[in-house]
Write a structure and sequence with these properties.
Distance between the termini: 24 Å
Order of helices and strands: HHEHEHEEHEHEEH
CATH topology of the largest domain: Rossmann fold
CATH class of the largest domain: Alpha Beta
Helix content: 40-55%
Oligomer: single chain
CATH architecture of the largest domain: 3-Layer(aba) Sandwich
Bound molecules: flavin mononucleotide
Strand content: 15-25%
């Protein structure tokens, strides 16, 4: 069950208990008590955080990398962090606006980020600019031999958005190496743990 659903269920239970209690004890539930419930509900809602993972997955290796990031984040078993995992083609501006941290994954193609991730930025940039300043962000790049052009390009967009890189970009360069999976998992775990602990 998602954290939001859990919160809604908890508040519904509290309201039911209050209703039963007020009936059996002939109590009048004042407006201030009702207001406290609303404030409590808002606090619960505010405490929920969303980690958005956007990973381009054109190959089995890149799918494994994105799965590893998600798997690492799930290791935290957070009660308050909701995980959302998409491809750049599936993601939209609302996903970014509702995120509290974001992990971006792409291949390097022709010395730049994948067309898929660029398309995501092209579609969402104007709607999100100046609305998510300070958004904690991390990047992983799968590159056949380089990766620096992609890193520079994403960093430039992130800096335009005023998002905050919370970890140095990971570049999985060269021949496939099983250690990439471990590093991707650690990335997901670290960002989720930071969000869960309120460090970011
Ligand atoms: C059209 C195309 C362009 C590419 N350009 C680059 C590049 O400029 N630099 C680089 O390091 N790798 C480049 N690559 C390699 C990809 O980054 C690599 O194939 C991708 O990360 C998938 O790796 P995988 O086989 O381990 O899944 C290119 C691949 C394709 C298909």
């Amino acid at each position: 069950m998602s954290p939001q659903n859990k919160a809604t269920k908890s508040v519904a239970k509290l309201l039911l208990l209050a209703k039963r209690y007020s009936k059996t004890n002939q109590l009048y539930v004042s407006n201030s008590v009702k207001q406290s419930f609303c404030v409590g509900f808002l606090n619960l809602a505010v405490d929920m955080r969303k980690l958005l993972i956007i990973g381009h997955i054109p190959s089995s290796n890149t799918l494994r990398l994105r799965e590893a990031v998600l798997c690492g984040a799930k290791k935290i078993q957070s009660e308050i962090v909701d995980l959302d995992c998409k491809t750049p083609f599936e993601a939209n501006a609302l996903d970014t606006l509702s995120a509290d941290a974001i992990i971006l994954g792409t291949t390097e193609n022709l010395g730049y980020m994948s067309g898929a991730l660029k398309d995501f930025f092209d579609r969402t940039y104007n709607e999100t600019i100046e609305k998510k300043e300070g958004l904690p962000c991390a990047i992983y790049i799968r590159a056949g031999m380089d990766g620096t052009g992609t890193r520079r390009a994403i960093e430039s967009i992130i800096s335009g958005q005023k998002w905050r890189l919370v970890q140095a970009p990971l570049i999985f360069r060269g021949e496939w190496n099983e250690d990439f999976v471990r590093q991707a998992e650690e990335l997901g775990e670290a960002i989720c743990a930071g969000l869960d602990a309120g460090i970011f």
